[in-house]
Amino acid sequence: MLNFTFKNQTEILFGKGQLSEVSSRLPEQAKVLFLYGGGSIKKNGIYDKVTTALEGADVIEFQGVEPNPEFETLMKAVNVARENDVNFILAVGGGSVIDGAKFVAAAVNFEGDPWDILVKGAAFKNPLPIGAVLTLPATGSESNGNSVVNRKETSQKRPFSSETVQPVFAVLDPEFTYSLPPRQISNGVVDAFVHVIEQYLTYPVNAPLQDRFAEGILQTLIQEGPKALATPEDYDVRANVMWSATMALNGLIGKGVPQDWGTHMIGHELTALHGLDHAATLAIVLPSLMFVQRDKKQEKTLQLGERVFGIKEDDKEKAIDLTIKAVQDFFETMKVKTRLSDYDIEKSAIDGLIDNLERNGLTALGEHGDIDLAKAREILTLAA
Ligand code: NZQ
Ligand code: ZN
Questions:
Q1: Which UniProt keywords are listed (predicted)?
Q2: Is 141 in the pocket of ligand 1 (CB under 6 A)?
Q3: Number of Cβ atoms within 10 Å of the Cβ of 7
């Protein structure tokens, strides 16, 4: 096992009615920026519940953080936060709103152009504390320090990461996910699944506990994901999906093991250039990446096939092919398509994707740093 340090500062408030705990978690004399998305929370009643939970606090609202949160929009929120001397951000929504809150938190006291936080890894001081009310289980953003921001103007989608912007608390009420459209249920399950894969499907380092954690989450998602589509108002199903998605990317399962993240990095370019949903990009890239990296990932792919998908096949190459197919079939079962052509993206678009990877310095991806631009091209070509 590799060396590691582990600390997760987010207090999880899980279950029905836990929103009522929020007021007791706010700082003294809180001046809260209530940040949310396109308005789904107004339709499903969460907005009213949050407003009630915040009664008595000084609250400024900012509506309109879009999926794949947009830099320009977030800069408007930064100005609102600055003008109103906000000292806390409550993010209510999915990964986009929570990621957006992290960027706002980091940018508020940043002198200079906050875009540098994303493209140059510029250091920032005194970020605002954040609380999250999660409405879409998928990204794990509610209990990690990662944030991904999109900028249409430059066709870039860039991440930054800092434990200083990790939410101090996160409300996970499974009932808040009942109103999700099927497409977002699917996206969430696929995204969480791939988060586990990025931290599991590398090479063995004798870390059987991390492996079992990862396999447990994958099995739970495979079992509960289709049920979430079939019986959307089943509390237990929603609860299990929600907790799986949080555990998939709260840092725990990735400790002491190598990590890949190549699928995510290539996928981000598909969103930046073609506007695809994050999960769709992963469903396209992962099976092909598994194929191209099959020798490097041989042992863990065989373990995944046998332990998670129950594949029993002595011929190793056949077993790997069956495992890749099982992963692809799972995405299709979750109604997320797995080929570029399913999204009307032509082979000729691959040049632009490769150029963007190069522009963003993403030329040595994967757990061995061996996914160069030629390999990325091979992966995308296979996914055409
Ligand atoms: O904008 P609103 O009106 O809230 O609607 C949203 C949005 O249209 C809707 N939605 C959310 N909760 C709902 C709901 N609709 C009805 N009922 C509810 N309860 O769903 C749509 C998608 O929301 P979004 O937040 O964009 O989805 P998701 O949670 O999948 O987040 C995706 C973003 O997270 C980033 C992705 O790159 C992408 O930008 N990621 C963040 C990560 C992290 N912080 O660790 C890791 C991930 O790999 C990922 O990169
Ligand atoms: Zn993801």
A1: Oxidoreductase
A2: yes
A3: 7
Beta strand pairing call for 88-93 and 31-36: parallel
Q: Which two tokens stand for residue 376?
A: 């990325």
The Å distance, Cα 333 to ligand 2 centre, comes to 18
Nearest CA to ligand 1 atom 39: 68
Angle between helices 208-230 and 298-309 (to 10 degrees): 50
Q: For each of the chain's 384 residues, which pLDDT tens digit applies?
A: 999 999 999 999 999 999 999 999 999 999 999 999 999 999 999 999 999 999 989 999 999 999 999 999 999 999 999 999 999 999 999 999 999 999 999 999 999 999 999 999 999 999 999 999 999 999 999 999 999 999 999 999 999 999 999 999 999 999 999 999 999 999 999 999 999 999 999 999 999 999 999 999 999 999 999 999 999 999 999 999 999 999 999 999 999 999 999 999 999 999 999 999 999 999 999 999 999 999 999 999 999 999 999 999 999 999 999 999 999 999 999 999 999 999 999 999 999 999 999 999 999 999 999 999 999 999 999 999
- Going by alpha carbons, the residue nearest to atom 42 of ligand 1 is 139
Ligand 1 pocket residue status of 95, Cβ below 6 Å:
yes
What is the Cα–Cα distance from 184 to 164, expressed in whole angstroms?
28
Report the alpha-carbon distance of residue 20 to residue 317 in Å, rounded.
Answer: 53
Cα 65 to averaged position of ligand 2 atoms, centre (Å)? 18
- Ligand 1 lined by 8 (C-beta under 6 Å): no
Regarding the beta carbon of 238 and ligand 1, being less than 6 Å apart is answered no
Atom of ligand 1 nearest to the CA of 188: 30
User: What's the residue count for the chain?
Assistant: 384
186 lines ligand 1 (CB under 6 A): no
Q: How far from 13 is each of 17, 148, 233, 283, CA to CA, in Å?
A: 9, 24, 20, 31
Helix residue ranges per DSSP H, the chain? 22-25, 40-43, 46-53, 71-83, 95-107, 115-119, 182-200, 208-230, 235-248, 262-274, 278-292, 298-309, 316-333, 350-359, 373-382
What is residue 88's three-state secondary structure? strand
C-alpha span between 209 and 232 (Å, rounded): 32
